[in-house]
Amino acid sequence: MTLHHRQQQSLLSNSDTNNTDSYRSTDTEYNNSQADERVPETSHLSSTTETFFHIVCITAGTGILQLPYALKSGGWAGMAYIALAAAISAYTGKILVRCLYYKHGVRLQSYSEVAEAAFGPRGRLVVRTLKDVNLLGVVGIYIVLAGISIDSLVVGTPVEQFGERFWIAASAVVVWAAIVAARQIHDVFVLSIFGTLTTVVMVVIVIWLGVLDLEFMHARPPTKAIDIRMMPISLASICFSFGGNLNWPDLEASMKSPKKWSKALSLATTFIAFIYACVAAVGYGVYGGHVRSPIFLSLPSGIAVSIAKAMITAHVLLACPILLTAVFIEAERDLDISSNTLGVFKERLWRAVFRSLLMLVIALFALFVSDFSKIVPILGAVAASLVVFVIPYDLSVSTYSPDGRVFQVEYAQKAVDNSGTAIGLRVKGGVVLAVEKIKHSRLLVPNSNKRIMTAGKHIGVASAGWMSDTRHLVKRTRDEAHNYHDIYKTNAPAKIIAERMGMYVQAYTLYSAVRPFGVSTILACIDEDGPQLYMIEPSGQYVGYRGCAAGKGKQAAKTEIEKLNLEELTVREAVKEAARIIYAAHDDAKDKLFELELSWICEESNNLHTHVPQDVLDEAIEHAEKALDDDDEMEDDEE
User: Fold this and answer.
1) DSSP secondary-structure letter at 292?
2) Which of 464, 362, 365, 364 is nearest to 422 (CA)?
3) With CB atoms 3.0 to 4.6 Å apart as the test, which of 223, 397, 487, 574 could cross-link to 408 if both were Cys?
C-alpha cells in the first residue's frame, strides 16, 4: 500500500506541470480563436462564487422533494447512497472538464466535442441528441410543474379561473423573457442566487415543519435500515437528483479562473449533498413508511407549506434559463450566430429569434402533448444517466469498458500511429536505430529536435509519438540507468531498464489524475548478454525484439524487416537496410519532407550509443534512394 501511495504521489508531482499548462490562466484568454470569440472580455466571466451558485441552482431542483420517499424505498442506507451519488457526480464532472483540455493548447468547447474526440462524429451526434433531449425535456417539465404549482397556489383568489394551461403558458413566457435577455451564463447570475436562496428557504421550511410535526406524534412510524430488494430504485432516484454534468463545460468556460473549477464543483456538490441529507433524514425520520412524494404531501397544510411550494416553483423557473444556455450556446456556435460575423444588432436579433422559436416549441409541447409530463421524465432519466454516469467511463484512463478495454490507452496508441516511423534492428554485433523525422516546415533547422536520443553511454532510445513525452521518458531512463550504476557499480542490463520503464509507463494508466504517454520507445543497448532491443508501448507492455517498428509506417516497415536475415546481417549492412526501410515506409502523398536519423551501438562505436558518422549516413541514404528508384523502375516495367 505504501509503495502504491508513493508511486501515485510521484506521478502526480511529475504531471503537475502538464496538467497546469493545460488550463488557461486567470489573466489570459483561450488559445484557440473559437474560444476567444466566445469569451471576449474578462468582465463577462463568472467568479468562483457565481459558479457555485450556478451549480447549486442547476442541480438542487425538484428532485430534493422525493428524497424522503427514496429513503422509504431503500431504508436508511439511502443516506450512504446520497454521499455516493455526490462523490460520483463530482468525480465525473472533474473528469469531463479534464477531457476538455486533452489536447495541449486547445480547449474543447462542449460535452459534444468531448464525445467527438472520443467516439468520432457519430459519437458526437448521439451524445448531442441525448444532452439536448434531456435539457429541453427537463425545461419543459419544469414549466409544466411550475404552472401546476401556481394553479394550486392561487386557489381561492380572483385569478383561480385562469386554469393550469394559462399558468403553464405564463411560466413559459417568464422563461422566454429571461433566456432572450441573457446572452451568456454570467448574465443569469442573479437568477442563480435567487434560485439557490429559494431552495434554502424551502429546505428550512420542510425541516422546521417536520420537526414540529414530530412533537405532536404519539409514536414515530416504523423505519428500516436497508431494503435490498428496493435498493436499485432508491439509488436511481437519488442519482437522478444529482444530474447537471451537461452544463459543466459551459460553466467552466464562463469562469475567470478555470483552475478553481474543481474547488467550486466540490463545494457545491458537498453543499447539495448536505441539504439533500437534511431533507431526506427529517422526512423519513419523522414520517417513516408513511412518507409520500413529494414531501409536501406529508407536511401539515398551512401558510408555511404554501411558501415552500412557492419557493420550489420559483426555483424551477429560475433554473430553466441556466439549463437552456447549454443548448443555445452550442447551437448558436454551430449556426455561427455571433457579432463577429453578423454585427452586434443582427447577432442580437437572430439570437432572439432562434431562442424564441425554440421556446415556442417547448411551450407548445408542454401545453398540448398529452402525457408530456410522464414521457419526458423517462427520456430525461435515461439520457441523464447515460451522459452523467455511463459515458464518462470512456473518458477515464482508470476505468475499463464493458468489453475489457481502456480507451484512453488506445487513444494514446493513436498518437503513436500518427507519428513518423521508427525502427530498430538487432543484428550480428550490434543494434541499429532509424527514425523518419517529418519536417512540417522548411524553416526548421536541420538535425534539430532529434528523435533518437542517448539515455546512457550504452543505451539509445528512438521514439514514435509526442516529442514532449519522449523527452520525459528519456530523462526517466537516464535516471534509472544512473541509479542502477550508483548502487551496483556496473551498467544496467537492458532487461532491467526495459522492465523499470515499462512499469513506469504502465503506472500512468492506473490513475485518473494522469494520462497515458502518447509515445512508443525503442530501447537499444549492449550489455553482458550482447546486443539487446526492446520496445515499450503506451500500455506499459515491453517486449524484446530482433526487429521492431512503430509509427504510421509500421506495417510496411515490419513487412520489410521480416524479409531480412537479421542474425547474419552486419551492422554496416543493417544501417543501409534501415535507411531503405524508412524510405520505403515513407508516404510521399501525405508527408513530402522528412529527415532520416540513424544511430548504432556496435564495436565500431566502442559499444557506445552514437549517431552514425556523416559519411555512413550519406552512403545509407544513397543506397536507400537507389533501391527506391529500382523499385519504381520495376513497377514501370511490369505495367
Assistant:
1) -
2) 464
3) 397
What are the Cα distances from residue 287, in Å, to 284, 290, 576?
5, 5, 85
In which band, very low, low, confident or very high, does the pLDDT at 587 lie, cut at 50, 70 and 90?
Answer: confident
pLDDT band at 15 (very low <50, low <70, confident <90, very high): very low
pLDDT tens digit sequence for 596-625: 999 999 999 999 999 999 999 999 999 998
**With b meaning 16 or more CB within 10 Å and e meaning fewer, what string describes 134-169?**
bbbbbbbbbbbbbbbbbbebeeeeeeeeeeeeebbb
The neighbour count for residue 263, using CB atoms within 10 Å, is 13
Q: What is the rounded CA–CA span in Å between residue 51 and residue 60? A: 14
Q: Where are the alpha helices (DSSP H) in 216-255?
A: 231-240, 248-253
Q: Cβ(621)–Cβ(579) under 8 Å?
A: yes
Q: Are 50 and 186 in contact (CB under 8 A)?
A: yes
| Secondary structure of 587-609 as H, E, C letters | CCCCCCCEEEEEEEEEHHHCCCC
Would you mind telling me the total number of residues written for the chain in this entry?
Answer: 639
Q: How far apart are the first and last CA of the chain?
A: 66
Element (H, E) at 58: helix 48-59
Q: Which residue has the higher pLDDT, 289 or 81?
A: 81
Residues 52 and 251 sit within 8 Å (Cβ to Cβ): no
Per-residue H/E/C for 460-527: EEEEEECHHHHHHHHHHHHHHHHHHHHHHCCCCCHHHHHHHHHHHHHHCCCCCCCCCCCEEEEEEEEE
CB 612 within 8 A of CB 599: yes
pTM comes to 0.52
DSSP 120-171: -HHHHHHHHHHHHHHHHHHHHHHHHHHHHHHHHHTTTSGGGGG-HHHHHHHH
